[in-house]
Please model this.
Amino acid sequence: MAVLAEKALLTRREGDAARERKNRRRALDAVADRGAVSTADWRRPSVRFGMGGTHVLLLVLLVVAGLGPMLLLAKFAVTPTQDILRTPMAIFPNGIAWDNLDKAWNEVQVSKYFFNTIWLALGSWAVQMVVATTAGYALSVLRPRYGKAIQAAVLSTMFIPAVVLLVPLYLTILNPPLLGTSLINSFWAVWLPAGASAFNVLLVQRFFDNLPREVFEAARVDGAGPYRLFWSIVLPMSKPILGVVSVFAIIASWKDFLWPLLVLKDPLIQPLSVRLPAIAATTDKGVFLAALAISTIIPVLLFLVFQRTFLQGAGLGGAVKG
Model:
């Protein structure tokens, strides 16, 4: 009798599990049917082929819109000037002009401006990372008494147009307090203002808010102080958001034009974003397009290298799953 009762109980449990799986399948089908095209419609050949063709067309248009300009610029970079002007869409009718790249790098001195841009981007990245991580850590983990007021003040700065701040910021760089010397024609004039990014601070704080507090409490019980907690616990758990902020910081610095134009008067220390428009009128068209192609290498490589980290951090998810 005990054996029969156990078999009956097992059979009942299997039946309950089967019914639960069936109910889940129905719920998933109901969710799927909430879309523009239901599951029943997808079974119809006309709908299936029509929607499939539309998806392929949209994918092709997206690829052309995203990669088309970069591929066209790469082609123009090694195309003779006469071919660019006469038959721009022809595929190398008179051969490939590899010397465009050499002239752009050496004669136009793109190499000098290229390394100036890298140096400016690295400095801006370092300053932004220090400010964003420390400020986000203070607001999210340390949580001072007036943290909410500070957070509101930081958020309010995002509503101020950047053009309104140009004059006071320029006057501050021209005569900075405590230093007693102007920062004009100094890389610090670009690096220091780059750190004042409320967007990065709030972005990092939002990520830190999702980190598990149990880990912090365990570290404090083990004797970790605020600095050790920040360096050994918080930063290693925040690699996705650090990658996102890094990509934002470097690309923003790479394409910045107005502020470097105002504070870097010496052409020898100006970045590509400032020098390329200045030499456009006096440079051969093919050589100039080669210089433009060289200037796009770093942003493209940066995104290709960090795209996985960027996509992981874009969701601002927590550090521990489950």
Remarks:
- DSSP finds 17 helices and no strands in the chain.
- The longest helix spans residues 45-77.
